[in-house]
């Protein structure tokens, strides 16, 4: 009875209406774009094996202990990458290492316990990664960074810095990690790549502010009821705007596309990301999408991430969706260069403040 009351209370919230209505419309619209592209001859971005060198390429995957991240780690270990798994739970990291090894005994793996919502933890990981590369006698570089970690929180849990934990994990952490690992990505002897895993839910955002209080989630904490759907959509929009602006910034510095950037939307995937929501809601969401034929397994959805990860280096600034190397356009808001620059500026201010706080 208690679970039923919890579910009914959530159904009456604005977050449920956004998820049930706007998110489904956004997902269907993305598939409509795929159909339109196939009918009118828009070409898919070709996918090819990633460039290799005499050293074993290193790949860093966040959120690698479950769902999409875990499936991606499995697949990339079979592509010859030395896969660095990043996750919050040491127990789940150990379990994932064992499972990958059981399926692929030749897999080269390393695990690091990291909390993406904490800048201090992310910064410590960068230092630990550099030290490990040195001690393992590996080239001091990263060829592929997959920013996959993400949460859908049902309640407000501020970080030590006072940020909203969902935004801190889904966006600020990814931005900070990318900034910190850029030297290692630049140091790669072959073209390297950043892949940001975003979501069709970004289409549910029709306007946005990108000042300090918005990007850290402080503005959302002023709401009477925690707006989990709005925050999740916003965090994924930020990740897309960041992807496009990072592509532009890198292209201005280096026309050779030494570091390329791709955003990927895996669609609706059967993972545990909704585990904080009432169990009845989880069941309704799963079966609704299953009946519509839109729910995918993590293994199938990971193919889109692999497409984005292994596409030729000249293909940068694209939005992958639907597998088979296919790309579509994200929302007009996510492609607004003025908003992207505003977000970039604010994110850099946050990053610099955090760096000064923790490193002096």
Automatic annotation (TrEMBL):
Its recorded name reads Short-chain dehydrogenase TIC 32, chloroplastic
Indicate the transmembrane segments per the record.
7-32
Q: Which UniProt keywords apply?
A: Membrane, Oxidoreductase, Transmembrane, Transmembrane helix
Q: Which family does it belong to?
A: Belongs to the short-chain dehydrogenases/reductases (SDR) family.
Species for this entry: Camelina sativa (False flax)
Tell me the name of the encoding gene. LOC104708715
């Amino acid at each position: 009875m208690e679970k039923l009351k919890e579910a009914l209370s959530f159904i009456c919230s604005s977050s449920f209406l956004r998820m049930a209505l706007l998110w489904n419309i956004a997902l269907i619209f993305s598939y409509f774009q795929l159909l339109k592209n196939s009918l009118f001859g828009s070409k898919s971005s070709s996918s090819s094996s990633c460039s290799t060198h005499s050293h074993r390429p290193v790949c860093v995957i966040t959120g690698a202990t479950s769902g999409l991240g875990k499936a991606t780690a499995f697949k990339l270990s079979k592509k010859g990458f030395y896969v660095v798994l990043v996750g919050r739970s040491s127990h789940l990291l150990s379990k994932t290492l064992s499972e990958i090894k059981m399926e692929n005994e030749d897999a080269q793996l390393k695990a690091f316990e990291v909390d993406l919502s904490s800048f201090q933890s992310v910064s410590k990981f960068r230092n630990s990664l550099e030290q490990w590369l040195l001690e393992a006698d590996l080239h001091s570089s990263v060829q592929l960074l997959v920013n996959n970690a993400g949460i859908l929180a049902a309640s407000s849990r501020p970080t030590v810095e006072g940020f909203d934990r969902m935004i801190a994990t889904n966006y600020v952490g990814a931005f900070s990690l990318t900034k910190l690992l850029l030297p290692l990505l630049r140091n790669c002897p072959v073209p390297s790549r950043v892949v940001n895993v975003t979501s069709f839910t970004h289409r549910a955002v029709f306007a946005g502010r990108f000042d300090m209080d918005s990007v850290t989630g402080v503005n959302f904490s002023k709401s009477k009821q925690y707006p989990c759907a709005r925050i999740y959509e916003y965090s994924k929009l930020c990740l897309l705007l960041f992807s496009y602006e990072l592509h532009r910034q890198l292209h201005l510095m280096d026309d050779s596309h030494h570091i390329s950037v791709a955003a990927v939307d895996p669609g609706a995937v059967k993972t545990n990301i909704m585990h904080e929501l009432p169990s009845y809601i989880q069941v309704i969401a799963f079966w609704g999408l299953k009946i519509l034929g839109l729910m995918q397994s993590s293994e199938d959805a990971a193919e889109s991430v692999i497409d984005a990860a292994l596409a030729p280096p000249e293909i940068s600034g694209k939005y992958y969706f639907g597998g088979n190397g296919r790309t579509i356009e994200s929302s007009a808001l996510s492609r607004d260069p003025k908003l992207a620059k505003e977000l970039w500026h604010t994110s850099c201010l946050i990053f610099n403040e955090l760096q000064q706080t923790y490193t002096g």
